[in-house]
Design brief:
By secondary structure, the protein is α/β, with parallel strands linked by helices. It has two domains: 3-132 and 146-182, Aminohydrolase, N-terminal nucleophile (Ntn) domain (Glutamine Phosphoribosylpyrophosphate, subunit 1, domain 1, 4-Layer Sandwich), CATH 3.60.20.10; 191-449 and 459-558, 3-Layer(aba) Sandwich (Rossmann fold), CATH 3.40.50. It has helices at 17-28, 120-127, 134-143, 191-204, 223-232, 256-267, 283-294, 309-316, 337-344, 361-368, 382-399, 401-406, 419-426, 437-446, 469-477, 486-496, 499-502, 507-523, 526-534, 542-563, and strands at 3-9, 37-41, 48-53, 64-70, 78-79, 81-88, 92-97, 106-109, 113-117, 157-158, 163-168, 173-178, 181-182, 215-218, 242-247, 271-275, 321-323, 411-413. The protein has a six-stranded antiparallel β-sheet, covered by helices on one side. It has a five-stranded antiparallel β-sheet with strand order 4-6-7-11-12, with no helix packed on it. The longest helix has 22 residues, at 542-563. The two termini are 26 Å apart. Mean pLDDT is 93; it is low at 502-507. InterPro entries: Rossmann-like_a/b/a_fold (IPR014729).
């Protein structure tokens, strides 16, 4: 399934409720593809309705459905895997998610209804109200994320890991119970056994399907996707999986696209090779499309500068599943809280040297009331601290959001994204964890192509999308403001007019800088790299603030309209 909702009403609903609910699915879908909308009333539980956009299999009223893939089954413990799951019977509805919240679901309930969905926009349409969450606004301004556990609407709550949400349909009460996970207890004696265990665990977690022709695997020059591709070559159902790469054209340097093309050519694997435009055409329409299709949980729109045309084409070509190299491991080393916040995706306003140049006092105050505890404990090593923050913050905040970005078209599968993978990795000594050392070792060991691993990114940086004439668009778009102070808007406009935004960098210099960073990243010791990185001050630039302000203003209008989709008096 891609986008879905489940809604349980307390009272009997009118006969046309299913037609009304289908409007919600229509509203969150792309209008440039032929969508399938399914709304079913349950026979197992009175006044329970399930809606799904573009389901990849028949929807049956079995009493449960799973979004994603489970590695293990539920016992008195929750399953391991990368999933969210909902079960129901005549007495209760229960829902929960994996340890990393890698598949995000949200919920809302009051005296009349319980709603569960992986779409915030669907939830807002179903609850028929929208109240902009100032906490989410403050974090989005400083980081491009919603902040820890926030939704765009103050009434919408996130389903958290290590929790079972049990809803009693008779009393119409929700009980939240602490829970743990049914992981595989894998022990190893040496590196060779570790490698074999890791590979076998990943192989066993590849998707199981009646048809494997609708799967596609994104490939770049990095270790994560390459390792997943090399593993797939050893699996009967996936050895001929089609590949895809999307990015901008770069004739000057060795980038992810060139690496992917060379790898696919060596292995004689068919690859869909797509080129992204280096600038956003019709940015007004682009921002509207981005918000409507993704929920705008993060501001990482630089991979979709074609207005999602690549994913529309995949859908039209009947691809329904993407197998991604998402992993619960990271690289680098954070020497202080500032670095840690940047790493996990929630930098504070105060982390920027020039934050005083902007009228942010209101948002700074709100943010200070919503600070998560990211402090390093006295017993933790820097590596252990980094790894804990990554699975507790980075994956739920950022990595999981990528599911929402393309969920209207395809569903993500991540065979390496399980708690069992992480617990196996955790058994290693810190000196073997470094920069994803096991991923690097295995990908290079399994590689036969000899294609270098030091490719530079082929996806443009966000700030690179707005240069020269695009700056004038940002200045004009800032005038459509209903959320922020006039003073802040004027300050951002003035920042955009400064020479360093108007002139831009020479493209050759940018590519050279990326190349140097890639080489240094591969060969410098991790501690030295971190010390050098800690010396680099962080500055707000007007471009970042401008497109975040534009997104928030546009989002507040779209979400408000969503809340009016269904007449409050209809049901």
């Amino acid at each position: 399934m891609s986008k879905f909702f489940l809604i349980k009403y307390k009272n009997v609903q009118p006969k046309d409720v299913e037609q009304q609910l289908e409007k919600v699915l229509t509203n969150i879908s792309s209008d440039r593809v032929e969508n399938e909308y399914v709304v079913k009333k349950s026979n197992r539980l009175d006044e329970l309705y399930i809606g799904m956009l573009n389901p990849n299999k028949n929807i049956e009223d079995t009493g449960f459905f799973t979004y994603g893939k489970k590695l293990t089954q539920k016992t008195n413990l929750l399953p391991d895997g990368s999933y969210a799951e909902i079960t129901y019977d005549s007495n209760s509805i229960e829902f929960y998610c994996d340890r990393f919240e890698s598949k995000t679901i949200w919920f809302f309930y009051d005296d009349e209804k319980l709603i569960i969905s992986n779409s915030q926009r669907a939830l807002i349409s179903l609850k028929k109200t929208f109240f902009l969450n100032d906490k989410a606004v403050s974090w989005f301004l400083s980081s491009g994320t919603l902040g820890f556990q926030n939704a765009w609407d103050v009434e919408i709550k996130k389903v958290l890991n290590k929790k079972r949400y049990v809803f009693n349909v008779n009393s119409f009460e929700l009980n939240i119970v602490d829970a743990d996970y049914n992981t595989l207890k894998i022990k190893y004696k040496n590196q060779k056994q570790f490698d074999n265990d890791f590979l076998n665990l990943t192989k066993n977690n590849f998707p199981v399907s009646h048809s494997y022709n609708d799967y596609i695997l994104p490939l770049s020059g990095g270790n994560d996707s390459r390792l997943l591709f090399y593993i797939s070559k050893e699996l009967q159902h996936f050895k001929n999986i089609k590949l895809i790469n999307w990015g901008t054209e770069n004739k000057l340097h060795f980038d992810d696209k060139k690496a992917a093309l060379q790898i696919s050519e060596f292995y004689k694997s068919e690859m869909v090779n797509e080129y992204l435009p280096k600038r956003i055409n019709n940015p007004d329409l682009f921002f509207e499309t981005y918000i409507k299709l993704t929920d705008c949980r993060i501001d990482h729109f630089n991979a979709f500068t074609d207005h999602f045309q690549i994913f529309e084409n995949l859908y039209k070509s009947r691809y329904r599943n993407i197998v991604r190299g998402d992993i619960p491991f990271t690289e680098g080393l954070d020497l202080n809280a500032n670095m840690a916040r940047a790493h996990i995706g929630i930098p504070l306003f105060s982390d920027y040297k020039n934050e005083q140049e902007f009228d942010l006092e209101k948002w700074k105050s709100i943010q200070q009331s919503d600070l998560p505890d990211i402090n390093k404990s006295a017993q933790e090593s820097l590596i252990a601290w980094r790894d804990r923050l990554y699975i507790d913050f980075r994956i739920p905040l950022v990595i999981s959001a990528f599911n929402d970005m393309i969920g209207c078209f395809v569903e993500n599968s991540s065979p390496m994204m399980t708690y069992s993978h992480f617990l196996l990795y955790q058994q290693q000594n810190d000196n073997h964890k470094g920069n994803k050392e096991h991923i690097v070792r295995l990908s290079k060991k399994m590689d036969k192509s000899k294609v270098p691993f030091n490719a530079v990114p082929s996806i443009p940086r966000l700030s690179d999308l707005f240069e020269n004439e695009s700056i004038q668009y940002l200045i004009k778009a800032l005038e459509n403001n209903a959320v922020f102070s006039d003073k802040l808007i004027q300050q951002v406009k003035e920042s955009l007019l400064k020479p360093h935004h108007q002139e831009g960098f020479n493209q050759n210099n940018k590519s050279l800088i990326l190349k140097i960073k890639s080489i240094l990243s591969e060969y410098l010791p991790i501690t030295l790299k971190s010390k050098l990185k800690s010396k680099i001050p962080k500055y707000f630039n007007g471009i970042e603030l401008a497109y975040r302000i534009i997104l928030i203003n546009e989002l507040s209008n779209i979400y408000l309209n969503d809340s009016k989709l269904i007449n409050k008096n209809d049901f």
